[in-house]
Specification:
Layout lengths: L1 E7 L2 E6 L11 E9 L2 H7 L10 E2 L4 E8 L11 E4 L9 H4 L13 H8 L23 E4 L2 H4 L1 E2 L6 H5 L4 H11 L7 E5 L3 H12 L4 E6 L2 H9 L3 E4 L6 H8 L7 E4 L9 H12 L8 H9 L5 E4 L11 H7 L2 E4 L4 H14 L8 E6 L3 H9 L7 E5 L1
Helix pairs in contact: 6-7, 6-13, 9-11
Length: 388
């Protein structure tokens, strides 16, 4: 089959690789209908996350059709159209039984690579480094899904492929950030980052009852889409201080909750950005944590900061601010299996249209060009959908 492969830092190619096979009686094989670029991929493409190997197929956000199932699977059925969360759950361990699906104790066969770094291994994820399981990714014609009964969700007839696609990762990641914020009716929520995850966090906050959502970014097309989704916006490149803007627009108190949907390759302004950029280029730290610092400083006292961005080793983390302001910090990789049925309802009711994230469509054969557009934000790119 054809697949998009990682061959080294900023070195991608579309190659012919072996088709996936049933390895376990609970496996399903999915013919990929659509996959999409994701900002998390950029971290290992740019060399800031270790653990990729030459020839690895990457990608973790996809939907498609079931073409083969293991002998012990009654669900899903061959021929069903399904969407699959990016983190792999078993539905049997303690963590899965407590709806903490990305923390699954069963689905990471390379736990020994993670445990020295994290203390305890997480669940596996498709196409996202060997410490996260070394699974073949979704930018391919076919993909193997372990524990198909726990991870394949049948797509209703009135939900399109394009809408279902983003339920694999962008929608649940963003919505989980809003869920972490414990929003009361009328709360003010600020979101850093107007990529797909940030936009879905903003929409999720509004669906959860927020009175106002303020999205912070610098890209005009992304800020415009945030406004179409119901948010207010701040262009951080056009103001002296995001914190001052938030203070003034909230009567001096600050947002009730803040969501960081940026992560380790954040952009900013001023000396702090130059400092972070220099240390990151020299590999003295992995993170440009501009958004995280601003979220912590901007949040009101006693508020909640939800961290959705991927981070490694963060310098100058303002722990004293967290303590003295009485902040609660919540973070996780997405618990997609927890939310998908609810998302289908939102889509069917007209409250959510994830297809609004699509700015470009390309063939899988154009995967290298797709990531060039995505990484460099060419032609107003927010998300590229790839079709094998």
């Amino acid at each position: 089959m054809r697949a998009l492969c990682w061959n080294g830092v900023n070195d991608l190619s579309v190659e012919t690789v072996p088709d996936p096979e049933i390895l376990n009686p609970h496996d399903a094989i999915i013919k990929v209908s659509l996959s999409t670029t994701c900002g998390s991929d950029l971290h290992f493409i740019d060399g800031y996350l270790p653990g990729m190997r030459e020839g690895d197929v990457f990608g973790h956000e996809f939907m498609g059709e079931v073409v083969e199932v293991g002998s012990q699977l009654s669900q899903p059925r061959v021929g069903e159209r399904v969407v699959v969360p990016s983190f792999i759950a078993c539905n049997r361990c303690w963590y899965c039984r407590h709806d903490l699906f990305s923390l699954c104790d069963t689905t990471n066969p390379n736990a020994e690579l993670q445990q020295p770094l994290l203390g305890y291994p997480t669940g596996g994820i498709y196409g996202y480094t060997h410490p996260f399981g070394g699974y073949q990714g979704s930018h391919a014609q076919y993909i193997r899904v372990p524990f198909g009964d726990a991870n394949c969700f049948a797509v209703p007839d009135d939900v399109t492929d394009e809408q279902a696609l983003f339920l694999s990762d962008a929608v649940p990641t963003g919505y989980m950030g809003a869920d972490f914020c414990e929003i009361d009716a009328g709360d003010i929520v600020a979101v850093w980052g107007a990529g797909a995850v940030g936009l879905m966090a903003a929409r999720g906050a509004l669906l959860s009852g927020a009175g106002r959502v303020i999205v912070v970014d610098r890209i005009p097309e992304r800020l415009a889409l945030a406004e179409r989704l119901g948010a207010e916006t701040v262009d951080y490149s056009a103001v002296d201080s995001v914190q001052e803007v938030l203070r003034e627009s909230t009567g001096g108190r600050g947002p009730d909750a803040c969501i960081d949907a940026v992560g380790m390759e954040g952009h900013g302004t001023g000396l702090q950005q130059l400092y972070d950029r220099a240390k990151q280029l020299l590999r003295l730290e992995t993170d440009r944590a501009t958004a995280l610092r601003q979220a912590i400083l901007g949040c009101r006292k006693g508020g909640i900061v939800a961290v959705l961005g991927v981070y490694g080793l963060t310098d100058k983390f303002p722990m004293g601010v967290v303590t003295n302001k009485g902040l609660t910090v919540k973070s996780a990789q997405q618990y997609g299996q927890r939310y998908i049925a609810q998302f289908f309802d939102y889509i069917q009711q007209g409250d959510l249209d994830p297809a609004a994230l699509i700015t470009h469509r390309m063939s899988l054969e154009d995967g290298v060009r797709a990531y060039d557009y995505f990484k460099n934000k060419k032609d107003g790119c927010i998300r590229v959908v790839l079709q094998p």
